[in-house]
Structure formats: structure tokens, C-alpha cells
Amino acid sequence: MITATIFEAKTNLSELIKQALNGETVLITSGREKKPMVTLSPVEPLAKRRLGFMEHLGIEIPDSFFDPLPEEELRLWNGEGE
């Protein structure tokens, strides 16, 4: 989660919007106590990723596809035992 005061948000609004569009939670706070006031979020949900050359098949790639591999699978990919 990204936190910014109202002053910081005014100064860096473009960057905070980019981060919100990339799926980050952006919390805007106020006052010395940094009381939470609002969050930034995209108006439309992020589009699902698709395989471009197979788009006509309607195959969707889950977000988990882009997660790092578990250590055991990395070792196998690197040829370190089975």
C-alpha cells in the first residue's frame, strides 16, 4: 500500500495515478496524525491479459502466471536434481 499526505498527493498526483492503475492501493491522508481520508482506484477494472497470437481462442492468462516460481521448480529448471 502506498500512503501519501494531501500535499504529497498534489505534488505527485500523476505518479500516484499510474501506481493505482497498476493495481497498487493508494491511500491519501490528512493532518499531522495522517488520518486516512480517501483511496485512489481505477474507474474500470484492469483488463485480463491475453495471448495475442491466440486471442481468437479466448484463452486468458491468470495473474498468478506472472508470479515467481517456487524454489523447488526453480531448482528443476536450473537442472539441480529431480
How would you describe this structure to a colleague?
Strands 1-2-3 form a three-stranded mixed sheet. With 82 residues, it is an alpha+beta fold. The chain starts with a strand and ends in a 5-residue tail after the last helix. Helices cover 27% and strands 23% of the residues. The chain has three helices and five strands, in the order βααββββα.
Strands, helices and their partners?
Elements: E1 2-5, H1 6-11, H2 13-21, E2 26-30, E3 35-40, E4 49-50, E5 60-61, H3 71-77
**On the 0-100 scale, what is the average pLDDT?**
86
Contiguous runs where pLDDT drops below 50 for at least 5 residues: none
The beta-strand count equals 5
Give a quick account of the main beta sheet: strands, pairing sense, barrel closure.
Answer: 3 strands, mixed
Q: Determine and state the CATH class.
A: Alpha Beta
Q: Compute the number of helices.
A: 3
Spatially, the strands of the biggest sheet line up as: 1-2-3
Helicity, as a percent range: 25-40%
Which structural class is indicated by helix and strand composition?
alpha+beta
- Estimate what percentage of residues fall within beta strands: 15-25%
What is the name of the CATH architecture? Answer: 3-Layer(aba) Sandwich
**Anisotropy-based shape:** elongated
Number of individual domains: 1
Cα gyration radius (Å): 19 Å
